[in-house]
Amino acid sequence: MLICVFGATGLVGKQLVSQALHMGHEVRAFGRNVFTAGFPEDEHLELIQGALFDTTDVAHAVKGADAVFSAIGGGFDGTDKTRSLGMKQIVAQMTVHGVNRIVAVGGMGCLPASADKLIMDMPDFPPQFLPVSREHLEAYHYLAASSLNFTFVCAPDILPKLVTGNYTVALNSLPEPNNHKINAGDLALFMLREVHENTYPRSKVGISNTE
Questions:
Q1: Which residues in the chain belong to E strands, given as ranges?
Q2: Domain 2-209 - what CATH class?
Q3: Partner of 116 at 20 to 30 A CA spacing, among 49, 98, 181, 204?
Q4: Angle between the 82-96 and 55-62 helix axes, to the nearest 10 degrees?
Q5: CB count, 10 Å around CB of 58?
Q6: How far is Cα 188 from Cα 190, in angstroms, rounded to an integer?
């Protein structure tokens, strides 16, 4: 399988690249600093230095791919629109080039708390996370408005830890048990598995480590 990873130099992106190569996939790693990120030389890895807001760069990355992964990062104060406008560009170029499958990282605040409120709308939601949660929600809206087969993984705190396999997921809700944390390695593992299993098409998913 040929996969494209956006945000490849970040915490989750590096795990996606590493695990995908270990699984035998062909990988395109996209980012501004891919050539200085310390990726190992691998005949199955193509490094693509580019900008998310550049139509030509993004088109080159997604064209011919079997699946796309988005682990886009950015600031937390609401002024950085990389997550939302980057997703807008990815969705547009996937649509143009006939690439249908994407698994993307979002935030836990995008999950529903009730029939008419999201977790980020609740009074006890930490206010410092509201700007980035709104950015994640905008990214989700671009996916939902498209015809793409997406899975939007609404992650809690992402820890800089490797894969354990000890995690749980839930459709459109917080999982049980919910420890409000997920290892970067386990988040990447779920995302890669989801591309193969397609258990949650056009859906939000909650995730948490169980230990």
A1: 2-6, 26-31, 45-49, 67-70, 101-107, 149-155, 157-159, 167-171, 181-183, 203-209
A2: alpha beta
A3: 181
A4: 60
A5: 27
A6: 5
